[in-house]
What we know:
The complex is a heterotrimer of chains A (198), B (638) and C (296).
Chain A: H1 20-49, H2 65-87, H3 91-118, H4 127-158, H5 168-197
Helix pairs in contact in A: 1-4, 1-5, 2-3, 2-5, 3-4, 4-5
Chain B: H1 11-21, H2 27-32, H3 36-65, H4 75-110, H5 118-140, H6 165-193, H7 206-238, H8 251-268, H9 271-285, H10 292-305, H11 321-333, H12 335-350, H13 358-380, H14 383-389, H15 393-423, H16 429-455, H17 472-502, H18 543-546, E1 566-570, E2 577-582, H19 589-606, H20 609-627, H21 631-637
Antiparallel strand pairs in B: 1-2
Helix pairs in contact in B: 3-4, 3-5, 3-17, 4-5, 4-6, 4-15, 5-6, 5-19, 6-7, 6-19, 7-8, 7-9, 7-10, 9-12, 9-15, 10-12, 12-13, 13-15, 13-16, 15-16, 16-17, 19-20
Chain C: H1 2-27, H2 43-73, E1 81-88, E2 91-96, E3 105-108, E4 110-114, E5 119-125, E6 130-132, E7 141-143, E8 149-153, E9 159-164, E10 177-183, H3 185-196, H4 205-216, H5 219-222, E11 246-247, E12 252-253, H6 256-264, H7 266-269, H8 282-293
Parallel strand pairs in C: 1-5, 4-10
Antiparallel strand pairs in C: 1-2, 2-3, 5-8, 6-7, 9-10, 11-12
Helix pairs in contact in C: 4-8, 6-8
Amino acid sequence: MTASAIPERLPVDAGGHGATGAWGMILVIVTEASLFAYLLFSYFYLGSMARGGWPPSGAPELRLALPNTFILLLSSVTMWWAEAGIRRGARGRLRVGMLATMALGIVFLAIQLVEYHGKQFTPRTDAYGSLFYTITGFHGAHVAVGLLMIAVVSVRAGLGHFTQRHHLAVTNVTWYWHFVDVVWLAVFTSLYLSPRFL
Amino acid sequence: MATSAPAVSAPSLHEKLLRIWETPHSLFGVLGTVDHKKIGKRYLVTAFVFLLLGGIEAALMRLQLAGPDRHVLSPEAYNQLFTMHGVTMIFLYASPILSGFSNYVWPLILGSRDMAFPRLNAFSYWMFLASGIFLYSSFLVGQSPDRGWFAYAPMTEGTYSPGLNMDFYALGLILLTISTTVGAINFITTVFRLRAPGMSINRLPIFVWGTLTTSFAILFALPSLTVACVMLYFDRRFGMHFFDASSGGHPLLWQHLFWIFGHPWVYVIVLPAMGIMSDLIPVFSRRPLVGYTYVALATVATGILGFGVWVHHMFATGIPALSTDFFSAASMVIAIPSAVAVFAWLATIWQGRPVMRTPFLFAAGFIVLFVMGGVSGVVTAAVPFDWQVTDTYFVVAHLHYVLVGINVFPVIAGFYFWLPKMTGRMLDERLGRWNFWTMFLGFNLGFFPMHIAGLLGMPRRVYTYPAGLGWDAVNLITTIGAYVFAVGVLLFLVNVFVSFRRGRVAGPNPWDAPTLEWAVSSPPPPYNFAVLPTVGSRHPLWEERLQEPGGRSRIDEGPALAEGRETLGVSPLDAQANEVITMPEDSLYPFFLAVSLLVTFYGLLTGAWALAIAGGVLDVALSIGWLWPSHRMVEAVS
Amino acid sequence: MLGWVLIIISCLVILVVGMLVLVGSWRGHTRELGPPERSGGGLRWILVGGVIVPAAILTAVFIFTVVTQAAVAAPATPPAITVRVTGHQWWWEVHYLDRSPSRMAVTANEIHIPVGQPVRFELTTGDVIHSFWIPQLAGKTDLVPGQRNVMWLEADSAGIYRGQCAEYCGTQHAKMALAIVAEPAGKFSQWLDRQRQPAPAPADSDIAAGARVFASSACSLCHTVRGTLAGGQLGPDLTHVAGRATLAAGMLPNTRGNLAGWIANPQAIKPGALMPVVPLRPTELLAVVTFLQSLQ
């Protein structure tokens, strides 16, 4: 039996979900997800060792964070919609969808800043404060990076770089954006919801 | 696009490929090369320099400890030296040196033309160099990290470590985690997409299995260190309270985070080396590895189990018995895959016809030291025994047996094995034997007595010890042995330098070895393969003589892919060719991004926030520039 | 016991594998790189040597380990004495606990226990992580901020047992030793009673002079001598310092000369130690030494 024959014709830089660029993004997501896992581990570890109540000033308010969660979820929908558009060659839909995603993302961050402003504790107050701001801050930083990526991809879309067959950058950014959303759900559940059950 | 072409007897093809792939001999070439062979060599040289620096640190320490109550070093100097010795060896030598071998060898042994992300490859090297520069610049201001390489809180907090020492540590390690992580992403993507058609997953060399396993381990383990270092930096710089027991934090949080990273890390620094040995021992036993599948599985099993043992570094901290029992059991179970590997090697030697060239000598020494280090590890997994020997010189002995035995010895063996491929010249055999015996005997003379010192009650990390405790003799012997070992390392360097110009010409396959890197010239051309090979077995170059049923590799015939920088992409498991992948040209972005990040981090170190922010903005701009598609790419798709 | 078994098994394993390497390398060896060949078999090596034998040995070792660990988890009889040890950079604060506060005793760096009786230790720290380790009596237990670790030990025979801090705790980690003195129950009770007493009134004018210097200089800002005005809490309690065998956390024999040298310049003996150089004229130094040497 001879070695597997190589087909006569092969695509060049086929793109798609098996492309090296896609592997790269998935692996980045894997390692960043681990990062958040360790942050949340730290939260629960210090919580388990805490003498007295945890969180010290009671569970954080949902007044801003809950609507904010829906805003972020909505932004994932718009991003999905945008990518689905370019998969069908609809460049206009791509641009509109990304614009909407960015707007929602910016709103998310703005509301988060408002929430920070209203908190009675700072990162220096105690370990809980350090954890709260660091975890949500890391997430916010990932959102900001995501917004930057969407902005760059939007510019490229405006320059006509993407077609129905070749739009790997859009796919990658979409996956990243969904990842950021999933991380928020984990953070939200851990920081805002779990004190109400545990 | 047509893919197959008969191998043109190749001056024109060679010249065409040379023009496409060769790095220009200019400053741009030096700073911008993405050639994995050049990057691999840089990793090897830089990591080796750090090995020597770490060795000098150790030599000074041993002078201080050669006798009781000596005054060669002040306590502060000693504490900085032992910390930097650990940081240097574990972070700046042990993993990068293996990355160096992986970088150089992988595309060749996999039958490809480069790594999946060549610019990212260059970036990971520049970041490694940057982190080394950052950490060592601490010596220039006399404030090197001095709280031990595992830096337990709260002694590392601002209250007890007011200088910049531990800021250098925290930020320097974060720089390094960036390098290591992107390297891991590169290795994983490369092995799954860029190898010779026909090299299915069960035909990968064990060296590849080793680095692949550790690359996954890196993705999951390194973020723990990043989180810990960020928290340390925040505690110190911004007055946060992660490790501060008086404000709801806890020192053991640091230990958990550190060791959740730290234990998998020790497997990161040995599994690729074990892989090198698994591929090298068969060459010098003149037969394929016994139990390839089991060794591959053992490699992966060790990588996974490595995540389940971290608490064995914390047995004395006051954790409940149920927890210590679990981790004790896991720490013993992890010995089993290692035993599988050891006996696979022994079987290969026994069932083969060993040739005792220098690489084989180092391999034999490696097996012995591996087992010695392994058993001293297993005994410390027994909790009550650990309560006596942890934090003593017994553990220092254990960790050096495993690190020198399972990393340094394979690395030297790897050099003897692959330097001829890299330089085209063999190393001297006679010097090699002297090299081996000096290193082997010196190492044992130096480190075996440490077991005894530990059992006699000598704690670790002490800058001196009183006379009359019975520790004097073992310490003196250790110092002598350490210096003999150092002479051995020097002999290696002498051999390398002497052979560089005057060694016997190697030719493509001086060891008559079976894998693809030995099919090309020594040194290989910049494009690796004139035509891309197809593989039919684990031992392409031995197929004719082994006459085994199964596929036949094709090395002299295959696609030339000479229209630009191109290589073949394959399916992840079965390695069916499914794509032609274009590779990027040399680029300065990796270098400048690393410089920019270094500047950013100096800003964070010194609290120069304007500098840090400016650096951050530049980091973003350079990243965008890097990722922006070239004209060529845009045209190709529109 | 566990330790010896482990060591013997380890040595056997090393010898066996070492022989296998040596013999295997020598046996079939050739000078030249011969043609590659695959002779069959060899998997049995992996099964036996790599899986079955190690699994058997490790299972036995693990069971032995768990049994040993359970055996040392608690003493045969409940300890009658509890000692709280608080680690500091770089000395050991020792409190003998008792239900009635008047029967508690404070000392430093030297712990006495009755022979043949288990003693309970509560371990805390005043600053960073330390580790309490008396090799001949027990394994080590860390002193962790925010946590109170508990362990016990028992001395089977009388004697002085040296210990040393076993977790890197800073500049003078190397010189943070301590001693456990195990003595017959009667002697121990006498010692403990004496530790409970405040310092006696000065017996002569030299001692009184020294006491005055001590109380009026920086000494009293860090050290306590119960029964005098010196009430500092930063350094070891010196009420009965003359009765200790060593100074500076086990580093110097407790002699007049060493004491003078230590007070005159602690940095020469333990560079980086948190005890400052207190400027004293020679007569004052001599007086303080005389005073301290009277504190039996």
